[in-house]
Design brief:
This protein has about 120 residues and is an alpha+beta fold. The protein contains 2 helices and 6 strands; from the N terminus they run E-E-E-E-E-E-H-H. The chain has a domain of about 80 residues. This is A/G-specific adenine glycosylase.
């Protein structure tokens, strides 16, 4: 785990927190007020490994999908909220990438869903 910490006026903040393990990658940014003992962080977690072969179930559906979690409030009772819109967008993006890979699509415009404008008949 590493992060660049900035301390000022009772607040510690970071824009580059990272942590890595065999199964997860974590990135975060935010601040904590150590005088008021409150936090405001956004943490993004990505599953990059698999528990298969380690006695666990397959987690392929979550592989490479980033799960953003907002952490706010007092240290004694923090609030955790899933930033759900970002999860859906990330999951859809990864599914498109997997599908284009399986289909052997190499054209970047096709991968991004680009289409030619429809012809107009007057």
């Amino acid at each position: 785990m590493k992060a660049t910490l900035n301390l000022a006026n009772g607040v510690v903040s970071t824009k580059d927190m990272t942590a890595e393990s065999p199964l997860l990658r974590i990135q975060g940014e935010g601040s904590a007020n150590y005088v008021n003992e409150t936090a405001d962080f956004l943490v993004r977690t990505s599953v990059v490994g698999t528990l298969e072969g380690q006695g666990g179930q397959s987690i392929d559906e979550l592989r490479d999908v980033t799960i953003p979690i907002k952490i706010t409030g007092p240290w004694a009772q923090p609030q955790f909220a899933l930033v759900f819109d970002d999860v859906l967008k990330e999951k859809a993006k990864k599914e498109v990438e997997r599908a284009t890979e399986r289909l052997g699509i190499k054209d970047e415009k096709t991968k991004k869903g680009g289409r030619r404008p429809a012809k107009r008949f007057v």
